[in-house]
Design brief:
Layout: E1 9-12, H1 18-29, E2 33-38, H2 41-55, E3 59-63, H3 69-78, E4 84-87, H4 102-130, E5 133-138, H5 151-171, E6 176-183, H6 189-202, H7 206-214, H8 225-235, E7 247-250
Parallel strand pairs: 1-2, 1-4, 2-3, 4-5, 5-6, 6-7
Helix pairs in contact: 1-2, 1-8, 4-5, 6-7
Bound molecules: NADP nicotinamide-adenine-dinucleotide phosphate.
Length: 259
């Protein structure tokens, strides 16, 4: 399917690995020029070069922490005038409700709620002026069904979800859509680190920890970054203009819900 977005320009935050990279690659494959970001410059430059060579698109890189005020200013400057925004950042650490202090919450809210909101505030006006734009926020399945040890993530991401629900309806008249993609378990570094926590906690091998988690998913496997990226690229396509303010689970059926 031709996604109809060849020649458009996208900012994909936190995109040197994992789900962000999956989104950047699927957009590059559709002919979209990119601004890519991550903290570590080495992996970022390597992936940017690979996408440039493979898909013949223009790729700019901004190596910085996207959750910091300075990082956001740097990325926003490079991304002025983009047609597509994909927000992403690392997730907060797991823990116990009784351990988290105000500072832990502020950090999680900054990274997973206020950072995407800052990018929307900075880049939505340009899209609205052009009468076309797409925003996809990478959130989590924990927005639909809480993961108890990820209380910081549950809190920050549901805050973002509430903000998007209203804002998506305010910008839709100008041809701009905002939607959230909710990953379940995907085979990325983040999943590796959660597997290694299970392996340590239960004193089992990484392979067993992975198999145990995969067994909880009806699809009986982890998702891939390529599948995730393809869903993101579709939401950014010409064909998705009537999908507004939705929360789309990509979880192999892992979240046990009727709707
Ligand atoms: P990942 O494989 O660890 O990749 C994270 C990417 O983001 C890397 O490119 C990393 O590069 C970059 N990054 C992290 N923090 C950043 C920051 N502050 N500023 C700029 N770049 C940053 O993670 P993932 O699995 O793709 O997860 C992406 C998001 O989805 C996370 O918020 C995660 O919690 C959420 N999620 C993932 C899963 C899953 O199963 N994978 C499930 C539910 C939710 P640098 O380290 O070099 O900055």
């Amino acid at each position: 399917m031709d996604l109809g977005i060849k020649g458009k320009r996208a900012l994909v935050c936190a995109s040197s690995k994992g789900l962000g990279l999956g989104c950047a690659e699927a957009l590059a494959e559709a002919g979209v020029n990119l601004v890519m970001n991550a903290r570590g410059a080495e992996a970022l430059e390597a992936e940017a070069a690979r996408l440039r060579d493979t898909y013949r698109v223009d790729v700019q890189t901004v190596a910085c922490d996207v959750t910091s005020t300075e990082g956001q200013a740097q990325v926003t400057e490079a991304a002025q005038g983009v047609d597509i925004l994909v927000t992403n950042a690392g997730g907060p650490p797991p823990g116990m409700w009784s351990d988290w202090e105000r500072e832990d919450f502020i950090k999680a809210l900054d990274a997973n709620m206020l950072t995407p909101i800052a990018f929307m505030k900075a880049l939505l006006p340009g899209m609205m002026e052009k009468g076309w734009g797409r925003v996809v926020n990478i959130t989590s399945q924990s927005v639909r069904a809480p993961i108890a040890v990820l209380g910081l993530s549950n809190a920050a991401r549901t805050g973002l979800t509430g903000y998007v629900a209203g804002t998506a309806r305010q910008v839709a008249p100008q041809g701009v859509t905002i939607n959230n993609l909710l990953p379940g378990i995907h085979a990325t570094d983040r999943a590796e680190s959660l597997d290694s926590a299970v392996s340590l906690q239960k004193n089992i091998s990484m392979e067993d920890a992975r198999a145990e988690r995969a067994a909880t998913i009806p699809a009986r496997r982890y998702g891939t970054r390529q599948e995730f990226g393809a869903a993101c690229a579709f939401l950014c396509s010409q064909h998705a203009g009537f999908i507004v303010g939705q929360n789309i689970l990509l979880d192999g059926g892992g979240t046990n819900l009727t709707m």
